[in-house]
Amino acid sequence: MLLRARLHYETTNFAHGMQSLQRLWECSSNESCTVQLDAKDELSEMNKLRRRIAEVEFLLSQEQYKVAKSEKEVHDARKAIRRYMMIVAMLFAFLALCVLKLGGSM
């Protein structure tokens, strides 16, 4: 199946190449045909550029997503650090209270 599809692609590609050569041969004497070929080349180049722009925009959106995700992770980490600092401060306050209570009862 894969071989059949590959052979079909190769024969189609070969036939397309032959048609292009035939068009070039027919158009070599006409000035208007060369203008059409130039326009066709420019259109092909524009399509390549459009595809490249779409690819770059996609990559940019992926990078923006990664940056946003990293910023959220940093924010969450800072929030957790503040929470742990508050817990440690409360433990020190409780320890100080216990020391004062023990010191006062002696």
UniProtKB/TrEMBL annotation:
This is Uncharacterized protein. The lineage of its organism: Eukaryota, Viridiplantae, Streptophyta, Embryophyta, Tracheophyta. The chain crosses the membrane at residues 84-103. Keywords: Membrane, Transmembrane, Transmembrane helix. It comes from the Eukaryota.
